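Regression test case RT-17, inverse folding.

Input:
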């Protein structure tokens, strides 16, 4: 999971980042709200962790900005020293998914991240089989079938296909894809993502006439989505 951590307290952010990276999360730290919102024009994440009190553009302002974005469906956890009932109710009503008061405790933070993630995924564990006709992906056996016929993929192509099909409809940045498929700290570049996207588009025939579209979004990343074949034919 890729997490954006927005907090101007560098020492606390370093500790939180270490805790989360021990759980194999990929964490990107932003020291202020402006840098974070600017980054979101090109990057994507699975979870945002926001400090409330920050100079220039605080967590509440960031949350308000997020609510105005049509693409925003990413869960948000607030962390802050403000612990009154009014503050907690206010920020939850404005769209935050959870709220943690400082001083932070490692186990509580990690448990709340896991809980918010479960809720955002509908409360269910990751399925072993992704079945979206004409595709059937078995995550245990690392096999993929199209129209009941096996499609030969390399290991990384399979991982990329699985990641994209688990995120149908989401705009995913190249950095997000690279981190999730090739791993945090990978020596590969986003050009690797472009090459592999091209390969799986061709191998799986992810084109509108077959009911699918794997689109490159300029300066942002890729989105996999289903399309109406009849509507495509009419246009």
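Golden output:
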């Amino acid at each position: 999971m890729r997490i954006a951590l927005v907090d101007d307290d560098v020492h606390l952010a370093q500790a939180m980042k270490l805790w989360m990276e021990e759980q194999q999360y990929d964490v990107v730290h932003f020291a202020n709200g402006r840098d974070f919102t600017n980054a979101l024009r090109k990057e994507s994440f699975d979870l945002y962790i926001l400090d409330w009190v920050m100079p220039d553009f605080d967590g509440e302002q960031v949350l308000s900005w997020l609510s105005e974005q049509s693409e925003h469906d990413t869960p948000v956890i607030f962390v802050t020293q403000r612990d009154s009932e009014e503050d907690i109710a206010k920020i939850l009503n404005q769209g935050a998914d959870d709220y943690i008061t400082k001083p932070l405790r490692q186990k509580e933070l990690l448990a709340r991240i896991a809980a918010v993630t479960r809720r955002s995924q509908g409360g269910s564990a990751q399925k072993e089989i992704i079945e979206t006709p004409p595709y059937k992906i078995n995550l245990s056996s690392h096999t993929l079938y199209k129209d009941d016929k096996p499609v030969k993929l390399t290991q990384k192509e399979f991982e990329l296909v699985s990641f994209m099909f688990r995120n149908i409809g989401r705009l995913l940045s190249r950095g997000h894809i690279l981190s999730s498929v090739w791993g945090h700290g990978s020596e590969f570049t986003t050009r690797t993502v472009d090459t592999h996207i091209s390969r799986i588009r061709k191998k799986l025939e992810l084109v509108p006439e077959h009911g699918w579209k794997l689109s490159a979004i300029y300066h942002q990343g890729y989105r996999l989505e289903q399309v109406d074949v009849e509507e495509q034919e009419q246009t």
